[in-house]
Design a protein that fits this description.
Layout: E1 11-15, H1 25-32, H2 38-46, E2 50-52, E3 55-56, E4 68-72, E5 90-93, E6 97-102, H3 119-126, E7 147-153, H4 156-168, E8 172-180, E9 187-190, E10 193-195, E11 203-205, E12 213-221, E13 225-232, H5 239-246, H6 269-277, E14 283-291, E15 298-302, H7 307-320
Parallel strand pairs: 7-14
Antiparallel strand pairs: 1-4, 2-3, 2-4, 5-6, 6-7, 8-13, 8-14, 9-12, 10-11, 12-13, 14-15
Helix pairs in contact: 1-2, 6-7
Length: 330
């Protein structure tokens, strides 16, 4: 069987090494069963699905060494998400990982208002065994109208590895963002993000929010816009969009955070209509990197801009003409 989850037994039986005497039970389980996250093992303990010498125990109980552990595996459901035959643009796939190029307009996982037709539905159709991996292996997300690269864990081992890499901030994610206004240099935005206190459906930079750090550099300047390469250090909801509007350079096409589009002075009809009618935030996840869950090998993927952003940039370059050659960033 190629999928590692099919090799995970319905029940684990193991014995605690005396060298682990005195440690918390949940810590010991996390060390003995690295394919599971500690939080999942704690849930199994709380549900009474872990027996120590035939008895249930608390997560904080200390072990004395030599005990027999029996752990019943209960697959975590995908919130009743059903498989649907939705096309996937797969860039890479092996026994542990799947990397897809998500198109703009595709929601990543079911939520209120989008109960089906999502990437998660598509993944379950492509690989039915993903129903035993939390959220069908999705460990990070892209907004509905953001396009680009997204990595999926095919096994519990890969899921834990990718979550750990996210927490260590070693999962590499780079975007291309077309913003309004001219930025003369790159920089870093370190500003906490939380719910907008006035409009709860939006996020905002707020005191007491979760730490959020975004790095950006200039790729190309135009008369009234800038193309940025943006790297995420953290992964908060709407992070790039919120941080860009925070420094008063909202993304082109972002109706939620961006306000009215501003065509450059002297823009022709085609460029004006393209900017005013761009149907989504001009944001694309262009590069992704991670360590392979089994081998530890550094892996990297990169894709070009999608057609809609490429066409808009071509119109901006055409408007600028020869001037744009002196406006390129590093």
């Amino acid at each position: 069987m190629k999928d590692a989850d099919r090799m995970v037994p319905a029940e684990h039986c193991l014995r605690i090494d005396p060298a682990l005497t005195g440690r918390r039970l949940d810590q010991v389980l996390a060390e003995l069963l690295p394919e599971y996250s500690r939080s999942r093992l704690q849930r199994l303990l709380d549900q009474g699905l872990v027996l120590v010498d035939g008895r249930t125990r608390r997560r904080r109980d200390k072990v004395r060494g030599g005990e027999e552990i029996r752990l019943k595996l209960v697959p975590e459901p995908c919130n009743l998400c059903v498989a649907q035959p939705i096309a996937l643009d797969i860039l890479f796939e092996d026994d542990q990982l799947l990397v897809v190029n998500k198109p703009a307009g595709l929601v990543v996982h079911p939520a209120a208002g989008n109960r089906d037709g999502t990437l998660q539905n598509a993944l379950l159709h492509h690989l039915p065994q993903l129903d035993s991996v939390p959220r069908a292996g999705i460990v990070h997300r892209l907004d509905k109208d953001t396009s680009g690269l997204l990595v999926v864990a095919k096994t519990l081992l890969a899921h834990k590895s990718l979550v750990d890499q996210l927490q260590r901030r070693s999962l590499y994610r780079e975007y291309r963002a077309l913003v309004q206004g001219i930025l003369v240099a790159g920089g870093t935005i370190d500003a906490p993000i939380g719910r907008d206190p006035l409009r709860r459906t939006k996020m905002a930079v707020v005191s007491g929010g979760r730490p959020a750090v975004t790095h950006y550099r200039v790729r190309e300047r135009f008369d009234a816009h800038t193309l940025l390469a943006v790297r995420l250090q953290t992964g908060r909801t709407h992070q790039i969009r919120v941080h860009m509007v925070h420094i008063r350079h909202p993304l082109v096409g972002d109706r939620t955070y961006g306000g009215r589009p501003r065509p450059p002075q002297g823009a022709g009809v085609r460029l004006t209509e393209a900017l005013q009618g761009f149907p989504r935030q001009a944001l694309h996840a262009t590069a992704l990197g991670c360590d392979h869950p089994l081998t530890g090998t550094a892996m990297h993927w990169e894709i070009p801009l999608p057609g809609d952003m490429h066409e808009l940039l071509s119109l901006l370059q055409e408007h600028d003409g020869p001037k744009r050659l002196s406006k390129k960033g590093p």
